[in-house]
Task: structure prediction
Amino acid sequence: MNRVRQLWQEGKPVVAGWLQLPGALHAEALARCDYDAIVVDLQHSPIDFGMAVSMMSAIELGGAEPFVRVAANDGSEIGKLLDNGAYGIISPMINDAGDAQHLGRAVSYPPRGDRSFGPRRPNLRFGANYHAQASETLVTLAMIETEAAISNLDAILSVEGIDGVFVGPTDLALSLGCSPRVDSTEGPVVEAIQHIRRKSAEASKRCGIFCGSAAFARQKIEEGFAFVTVAPDLAMLTEAARNIISRTR
Result:
């Protein structure tokens, strides 16, 4: 079973990493640091498809579930990533039920969806009958990061094939006229994030959020968020470098 789904069934939150830097070695190394899942970011990074495939294999080898934040809600891209080892998809800018339906159909085989058959890596892990259990194996999260998405949240949460939503805090803040900061404390952003979590719970769907610090991630877990990503690799690298330099000088 997908480790993320197993943790959810046990009533436990998921702590995930976030990769913006290309490279399989550090992807595997971080996967061995007790993350439950690691997200490869294809929207705001220089990681291309070929590198993403190598990184997903390395993440799986390291013991975490390979997730991908896709560049766009594109069925062809999503299908190729699923066929080559993504066991979780996070899709950006889901603004209405139509966007969510497109995502739900992209991750599902007919008759439920439009996914074309060709699972290369999943067959190695789950066997030749993978297609029959694919919908129960994958995790699909729709990013809520605009005022329009909040207005259409009930409809988005009702879409079949979507396991839940994932808050993109910086774009959400911009949409609300606030500063694009992770771990924001601005009133409209805080209120919107709590509204998204409450609505997700009412719909019996999971709610995730991008966090910039362990303290903020812990707070969100305590509030009931089921999936938190903590500090991308580039941020951790630069923070560690600053600490080393400051102690050296």
Notes: Residues 170 and 180 are 4 Å apart (CA to CA). The chain has one domain: 3-248.
